[in-house]
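pasting for ref
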Amino acid sequence: MIISFFKTNHIAVYFYLLLYAFLLRGAFLFHPAMVPIPGNSFAGRFLYHNIPLQSWSAVFPQLADILLIITEAIFFNFILTINGLFDRHTFVPAMVFITFSSIFPQWVAYDVATIASVFILLSLYNLFRLADKDLSRNNIFYTSLYIGIASLFYFPATLFIAIILIGLLTRSYILRDFLLIVIGFILPFYFIGIWFYYQGDLDNYINILLSVFRTKYTLFYISTPELIFLAFAIILSIAGFFVWFSSSEYKVIKQRRLMNLFIFYFIISALATPAINSDKFIYLKTLMLPASVFAARFFDAKNLRFYHHILFVLLLGGIVFFQLVYFKVIGF
């Protein structure tokens, strides 16, 4: 079955990932769509107004988004395997990452949040380095700097500063280290502020920043089939968590710390959803990164059983179903 193709580190797996991503997301090359850029996406607005997308075919940014997802999936897989959370001879985490990021059609349309995810993963890579024997203050600084850059594209990424603080608390209580987090995070916003200042538009910049905290706690619409499918994906993740929890690797202190960070990542993403000013349904995609870790643990079993394949086919079937509904091939 499909899962078996990715339980290897053979060079051919990169081709499998490329093919797999295009199978799940390639339909959007024929019907490209863009998620509206939030008003507080400084870098997103800059790219939109300075790159003549209107004179290009929308296929190009959609294609770039697919290639970016593949790159992120490979890097995500690298982060997990180099830290011993998964065997180095598997690309199942990359496969699950692509799958979970494609669950709903609204998550496949090209989006500045995809660019932000690159910097979130870079931050995660440096965050995991904090678990090494020797604590590097360069890693502390870059961990928050990358989140600051990610926030320039998608401001809700700011919430992951909480994950960095939790990660640092496991290693250090020195005030200087926490100041490095603050400095690293505000540095991109500081330089943006200087640019607004020389443009004579500093008041507008301050108002944009303040508008982020003027949150209206409103409900958002999610259909019953979407809610059921989202719950199905989360249940797979929970199953993966218990597989990891019952394994001998749980006794390794470093792995336990790192997996706990993903748990906090998941909880903070879930609890923060009502407070997001931008599209809450789009923001739910942030749940998929930590969920992918646990679901990958479930599907990366040494001996794949029949139910592993059945559940994965159901997952793929749901993705295809929602895309057919989205493109109005079938009515529902």
